[in-house]
Amino acid sequence: MPHDDRYPAGAPFWVETFQPDPSAAAEFYAALFGWSFDNAPGVSDGSEPLLALADGKKVASIRQSPDGVPPTWLMHVRVENLAHALAEVDAAGGSSLMAPFDWDSTSRMSIVADSTGVPFCIREAGNDAGAEATGEIGTWAMASLHSTNVQAAREFYGHDFGWELRPVPDAPFSQWTLADQSIGLVVDAGNTPQHWSINFAVADADSIAEDAASLGGAVLVAPFDTDGHRNTVIADPAGAVIACSTVD
User: Fold this and answer.
1) For the segment 17-73, what is each residue's pLDDT rounded down to a tens digit?
2) Domain-embedded: residue 183
3) What is this structure's pTM?
4) CB neighbours of 79 closer than 8 A, spacing ≥ 6?
5) What is the C-alpha separation between 100 and 109, in angstroms, rounded?
6) Is the domain of 61 the same as that of 164?
7) Does residue 187 share a domain with residue 107?
8) Among candidates 29, 25, 225, which has minimal Cα distance to 138?
9) Are residues 120 and 144 in the same domain?
10) CB atoms within 10 A of CB 193
11) What would you measure as the largest C-alpha separation in the chain, in angstroms?
């Protein structure tokens, strides 16, 4: 995926978890990934997210769940004009799940669903640089769409954001690209619910699974091997799900 200042309009550029108790979630992820927070739990009045830092770099955020939003991790896509982007979502067969609201004092966002019903966020972020580190230990590595209708997804994200879908030889997934930059993957969801999977880079998937369980989370998929990676899927204590994969 693009890094730092390379998040053009239409690119995924941030990940965020919506939580019933942001302070408790911050404690879990601080212990799991070693994150610190520049607005510590108990200091924020809830109107702005808790910004997670990995080695001093902004990498994710934790926000109070609005009414009706279950604990979850969602990807943010950068847009230049939120009102126009919402109209384009509707035109492409998607829907708005939540009216626009202030993400912080300088940007606005909305939670939407694509044409197959999979939720994600769009955010008019101005000069926000987005995730300051990706693909490093303890940071967001990739977003993968698990879809039961890949063709519909191709049409929706192509129409709204200019994404292209490219097959990967001998791989069970295809690659999303924007301006020839890899920005994510798409895989057949099979018998699992459709969703955007948020994947974090870790040094040891087995240790992460053990730590998640000991911290009150759950291991949903025990560590397993794929080509070049060892992976696991975990849920935090509130039930928000992430995937974790080893990196060299």
Assistant:
1) 999 999 999 999 999 999 999 874 554 555 678 999 999 999 999 999 988 889 999
2) yes
3) 0.93
4) 9, 10, 85, 122, 123, 124
5) 5
6) no
7) no
8) 29
9) no
10) 9
11) 50
